[in-house]
Amino acid sequence: MKNATNQSQGMLLFQLTARQSFAIGTLKVKEIVPYTPLTAIPHSHPTVLGAANLRGETLPIIDMAKAVGYPPIKSEELRTCYIIITDCQRKLVGFLVRGINKITACNWHDIESPPSTLGRNVFVTGVTTVEGKLVQLLDVELLLSKVFPESPSSLHPVLTDMQREKLRPLKIILIDDSAVARKQLSQALDSISIPYFIATSGQEALDMLHRAAAAGAPFDIIVSDIEMPGLDGYELAFEVQNTPVLSHAYIILHTSLNSEISVSQAHQVGAHEALTKFEANELIHAMLRGAERKQTALIQSA
User: Fold this and answer.
1) Percent of the chain whose pLDDT exceeds 90
2) Residue 240: pLDDT above 80?
3) In sequence order, what are the residues at sequence separation of 6 or more whose Cβ sits closer than 8 angstroms to the Cβ of residue 10?
4) Whole-prediction pTM
5) In terms of DSSP bridges, do strands 48-54 and 124-130 run parallel, antiparallel, or are they unpaired?
6) Which InterPro entries match (predicted)?
């Protein structure tokens, strides 16, 4: 994938079963190591096998196959397994998998949405083919939300009546390909009675932005994930900032990657804010800064 920041992201292909290939974006991957003995974690989630100490970091190790509904990895398989260490949603987590295939280049525009027949809670955000074989792109955010549920305090923002009234008149769009992320965003705004629109891809959002502008009711605040198949958040921000009828919108990009690079690149393509998702109060205060910017612009133009 080449986007407006000239950043390239490939796919790490791996095995959870003997036949089916799965993948995650390489930007989420920090390291891949062979299986190492683990220390038990009392009262942990059933899919957490234990903790590993790797390069001075202690992190939980999840049996990814079991977590997404496949047979768990047996003790006699461990010597041939690998741990994928990810840096995602402010968590350093290891995923035990049955095998590593390879890292491959990827045209993220070619990734298709998963068939609706898979259901609502499937851990897949997209499907593609590599060398003629079907590959399923896993929804790491959904998986982590099941294993490490967020505390209610992190999902529901706190704000004053005056702050709420600053946001209520604004036209807000939330964009994310992950069902769990969309739910978190929606719950945050629902809890404070702020209306919003939702898009499940960058291209769908861009089409909605153009239709709204053409109708004379443009969006004021755009909240978008960065890592999405097709038109990603960087490209969406770049398109918005380079389209005069859209460019007044306040752009907030968010990412599950704990990366200063992602934040820097978000600003390069014209985003006003870049957040590591998900913390509801951070998001709402970013929106409030967008509301204040709009109010300042109205005063200056009066």
Assistant:
1) 48
2) yes
3) 25, 26, 103, 104, 105, 106
4) 0.68
5) unpaired
6) Chemotax_regulator_CheV, CheW-like_dom_sf, CheW-lke_dom, CheY-like_superfamily, Sig_transdc_resp-reg_receiver
More confident residue, 294 or 258: 294
Distances from the Cα of 173 to the Cαs of 74, 170, 209, 221, in angstroms? Answer: 45, 10, 9, 6
What CATH class is the domain 11-147?
Answer: mainly beta
Distance between CA atoms of 93 and 86, rounded to whole angstroms? Answer: 5
What's the average model confidence in pLDDT over 263-280?
82
Report the largest interatomic distance among the alpha carbons of the chain, rounded to a whole angstrom: 73
Q: For the domain made up of 152-301, give the CATH fold.
A: Rossmann fold (3.40.50)
Please name the helix (run of DSSP H) or strand (run of DSSP E) that holds residue 183, with its range, or none: helix 179-190
φ/ψ (deg, to 5) at 220: -100, -35
Cβ count near 138 (within 10 Å): 24
- Given a contact cutoff of 8 angstroms between Cβ atoms, the answer to whether 301 and 36 are in contact is no
Per-residue confidence (pLDDT) for residue 258, from 0 to 100: 61
Closest alpha carbon to 163 in 23, 58, 75, 292: 292
User: DSSP characters for 85-126?
Assistant: EEEETTEEEEEEESEEEEEE---GGGPBPPPGGG-SS-SEEE
Identify the weakest region by mean pLDDT among 11-15, 34-38, 161-165, 251-255: 161-165
